[in-house]
Amino acid sequence: MSVLSVNNLSVSYQDKNIISNLNLEVQHGEIVALFGASGGGKSTILKAIAGLLEQVTGKVKIGEQQVLSAKINLPAEKRHTGLIFQDYALFPHLTVAENVAFGLQKLSRDERVQKVTEMLALIKMADYAQHYPHQLSGGQQQRIAIVRALACQPTILLFDEAFSNIDPKLRFELITDIRNLLKSQKISALFVTHNQDEAFAFCDRIAVVNQGRIEQVDTPAQLFNAPATQYIAEFLGEGLWLQSRIKSANVLATPFGEADYLGKQCLSEFIGKTGLIYLRPHQFTLAADANSKLQVHNERFIGECYESLLQWQQQSIKVKTPTSFLHQTVSLNINTQITKVFFE
Amino acid sequence: MSSVSQTNVQQQTGKSLVASLFSACKQLKKIHVSTLLLALILAAPLISISIEAFAPNSDTFAHIQQTVLADYVINTCLLALGVSILVISIGVPLAWLIAICDFRFKGFFQWALVLPLAMPAYIVAYTYTDLFDYAGPIQTNLRNWFGWQSATDYYFFDIRSLPGAIIVLALVLYPYVYLMVRAGFLEQQANLTHVARTMGYSPTKCFFKVSVPVARNAIIASTALVLMESIADFATVKYFAVSTLTTAIYDTWLGYYDLAAAAKLSIIMVAGIFILLYFERLQNGKKQTHNDAKLSAQKLVYQLNKKQSFAAFCFCSLILLVSFVAPLIILADYAIDYFSQAWNDKLLQFTLNSLIIAALTAIIAIVFSLLLNFSLRIKPNKLHKSSLKVASSGYAIPGTVMAIGVLIPLAFLDNQINALAESLNLSAPGLLLSGSFIAIVLAHSIRFIAIANKGIEASYSKVSPSLDMVAKTMGQTSFNIFRKVHFALIRKSVLVAGLLIFVESMKELPAALLLRPFDYQTLPTYVFQYASTEQLEIAALGAIIIVVVGLIPLIVINRSIEKN
Q1: Is it true that B25-56+360-517 and B68-333 share their CATH fold?
Q2: Who is most buried in A274, B318, B380, B447, counting CB within 10 A?
Q3: pTM score of the predicted model
Q4: Inter-chain CB proximity B213 and A76 less than 8 Å
Q5: Residue A43 to residues A162, A302, B10: CA-CA distances in angstroms?
Q6: How many Å apart are CA A98 and CA A104, to the nearest integer?
Q7: Among B191, B193, B198, B304, which would you mutate to test the A interface (most chain A Cβ atoms within 10 Å of its Cβ)?
Q8: Pair B187, B129: CB distance under 8 Å
Q9: What residue in A sits closest to B297 (Cα-Cα)?
Q10: Which are the contacts of B292, defined by CB distance < 8 A and separation ≥ 6?
Q11: Do A87 and B303 make contact, defined as CB atoms within 8 angstroms?
Q12: Residues of chain A contacting B201 with CB distance shorter than 8 Å
């Protein structure tokens, strides 16, 4: 069942289109990321869905309620969303308990107290009820911001770069906790981020946003292994573009030997043609080879492995290797199956 | 280099290092002593009043205590309370409209609403009395239109009353609330309101539940300032015949020449103000409502529709009209009509007197403040911190109290000088200090140094301490660091503070009224003298000069804000 349905959403500012005809679906209990470079319009999409922007057209349905259409434009306070920002946006003049109770004005006093207690217990922060936001750590503040939003029982939670202010060491612990919490409560969420690791760790599906358009919506693994566009392939990590000839439906001839193909796209009709494949540093292996013309001319130790740099046909190839090959001549092999070929 | 010459160089370097360390210590000691001396000078009025206040009760004070003291205190409290409520009612909505909403002419109102700061309250009081009094054009026209014969035939609001004083003071003091709360609203994170909106709060509810509570500190701080200003007001309440503690001090000194009684009244007032300041600090320290400046870059903006825009325009226009435009028009009208009578050598002389006092006050206050701040910068110890605090407390002391506080030590010094002259068989110089304009300059300097301290302190805090360290490693003396680094970086704030002090000193009436030598007038005392004898038409030109001078720093500051 779809919890959020966005059709042909367009946002303009000062007569300039920022978002054009955007479509997106979020299913019940699903966490979806809006992932892309800074300034790509991700936060604008989020605020347009929340009803915080003017000059928005298209259709938005949250749960069973049409919140935006040609005739309807519900204000933010009637859309039943919960917003979580990177700066937490906790009310500094209210205690933790008062913050959580802020959206519960329709409940009786006793019900409010009970709800606040329940919510704080959910994140194991019952002891902090009388603290003020500035007395908490960043991670604690973000947990409070999340349960404050959850307390209002929103149809969907909207996260705007919600984890980017958290200490990197604690960030993924918090992400795991929040993901588990949302999953246990079966809460849907739309999560805006420019951080790939956060998107992969937190979300079920990722929508890659580029210049106000969604280029692909898919699971993290599918997105990484079979990007729909060259932009996405490059955006998800550095690599090398290689011209490869389609030898058969399952085999590609690359400059570094043959590689197996296991992608969804059927290559039978492309046999004999040339396409582009994108290989990342971990998809190559090096072996010492005195007869090879390839030489590792530079190297960097990055902890779990080495990053070796080779020069090949005026291109620089980066390869991750377990041991050092500095100044050695080497042979380069592809150690992976190819899942995506791009044709002109 | 040979080992011998190396040793020589090392010895010389060692010697010069010792010498420079010794000179630095001497310099520090000098600064230490001068800071202490400065703190003593600045604290002298308060110390004098406190000592004088503990003198045995005189007949005058006993009489005041038994008869009218309670009225004085109640009137002062009612005045302060009424003005506070009114300035919050005017200043907070204006601040919200200008900071958060978008409507036509907002850019104009943004700076125009500050203009009443240039208008002394007593001038507004004179103009509105002239306008609304029984003989004024409004009541006269009403009587003509309706055929009323006398005041018994109709009811009309008496401007010369406590509510009248509250309204007049609120009209010129609301810009304090407007300016500080507007800054508070601008610093607020838009996300706070966005979150509240998604939790079911309408924009109006967000104003009361989020914007106002988050700007609480700014509202309390600005209201405390207004409270102090209204408690300190003398001319408006005197003109409106409202008996408050300031008028009581004035009357006790100039009517009965009872310094001890005046000091006792002063100490009651100062105690009240300090209690107020204590609660203000306590409240502001209670809940931290600061925002991370880096994160509040995103601003909240409400685009008003046509009806809302018109209402906002009307509200802003009305406040500007009654607080600044109308009084200015009345004054300008009189100034033009009575120009030939008002423009004379005396007016020029009084203007010159005011300019000299204001300039000297600004220079002295700035120099004192720079010295105090610099001492704290190079040696941030308790003494220097306390000195700066003492120096800044002068602003809390009303002009009338300050005048009494300055008069006591200066009179003591005059007596000592005269006794010394007599013992040396010289002619006694008389009231050399307490009987000259030096007393006014000293009172103004001590009262207004807080303005310089605030600006310079804030500016100094932005100068990284590493600059001092770098300059020191480059062999610069403390004085050179101050001259070449500090002053170069904070000179804008110094200029703005100097201008503000200049204007405040130009406007200040009570201290000048109490301390002026015989036959010596400043512009405010001249305006007060004529206006209080119902001759506003003659005083108007002088009043306009005060207002015009008051506009200069507002224009300079506004330009500097716009540039930033």
Answers
A1: yes
A2: B447
A3: 0.75
A4: no
A5: 11, 33, 64
A6: 10
A7: B198
A8: no
A9: A87
A10: A87, B189
A11: no
A12: 77
Q: Tell the CATH superfamily of the B25-56+360-517 domain.
A: MetI-like (1.10.3720.10)
CATH of domain B68-333: 1.10.3720.10
Instruction: With beta carbons under 8 A apart, name residues in chain B contacting A73.
Output: none
C-beta separation of B83 from B230 below 8 A: yes
Instruction: Of B128, B117, B170, give the one whose Cα is nearest residue B506.
Output: B117
Distance from C-alpha of B451 to C-alpha of B395, rounded to nearest angstrom: 8
Closest chain B residue by Cα to residue A106: B200
pLDDT tens digits, B506-541: 988 888 988 998 889 999 999 988 888 878 888 899
**H/E segment holding residue A334:** strand A330-334
Q: Are strands A330-334 and A315-321 parallel, antiparallel or unpaired?
A: unpaired
Q: Pick from A98, A96, A100, A59: which is nearest to A82 by CA?
A: A100
Tell me the pLDDT tens digit for each residue of A45-98: 999 999 888 889 999 999 999 999 999 999 888 899 998 988 888 888 889 999
3-state secondary structure of A36: coil
Length of chain B: 564
A21-39 residue pLDDT tens? 999 999 999 999 999 998 8
The residues on A that touch B, with CB distances below 8 Å, are 47, 50-52, 54, 75-79, 81-83, 85-87, 89, 91-94, 102-103, 105-106, 132, 134, 145, 148-149, 152, 154, 158
Position B433 confidence tier, pLDDT thresholds 50, 70, 90: confident
Domain ranges of chain B: 25-56+360-517, 68-333
Q: Testing the interface with B: which of A77, A104, A131, A161 to mutate, by most B Cβ within 10 A?
A: A77
Nearest CA-CA distance, residue B276 and chain A, Å: 22
Q: Tokens representing A97? A: 């308990």
DSSP string, B502-526: HHHHHH--HHHHHHPPTT---HHHH
Short-list B243, B230, B239, CA closest to B125: B239
| Rounded alpha-carbon distances, angstroms, from residue B225 to A42, B87, B88, B274 | 45, 11, 12, 12
Q: What are phi and psi of B198, to 5 degrees?
A: -70, -15
Angle, in degrees to the nearest 10, between helices A138-151 and A109-122: 130
- CA–CA distance, B164 with B128 (Å, rounded to integer): 9
Please tell me the distance from the alpha carbon of residue A218 to that of residue A225, in angstroms, as a whole number.
11
- For an interface test with A, the pick among B189, B191, B212 (most A C-beta atoms closer than 10 Å) comes out as B191
Mean pLDDT on A111-128: 93
Interface test with B, best of A43, A53, A54, A87 (most B CBs within 10 A): A87
In this prediction, residues B193-201 reach a mean pLDDT of 89
> Considering only CB atoms, which residues of chain B are within 8 Å of chain A?
189, 191-192, 194-202, 209-210, 213-214, 216, 287-292, 295-296, 303
- The SS3 assignment for A294 reads coil
ipTM of the complex in this document: 0.70
Which run of H or of E encompasses B338?
Answer: none
Nearest to B199 among A75, A94, A102 (CB): A102
Q: Residue A303 has which token pair? A: 């902890």
Residue B200 to residue A78, Cβ atoms within 8 A: yes
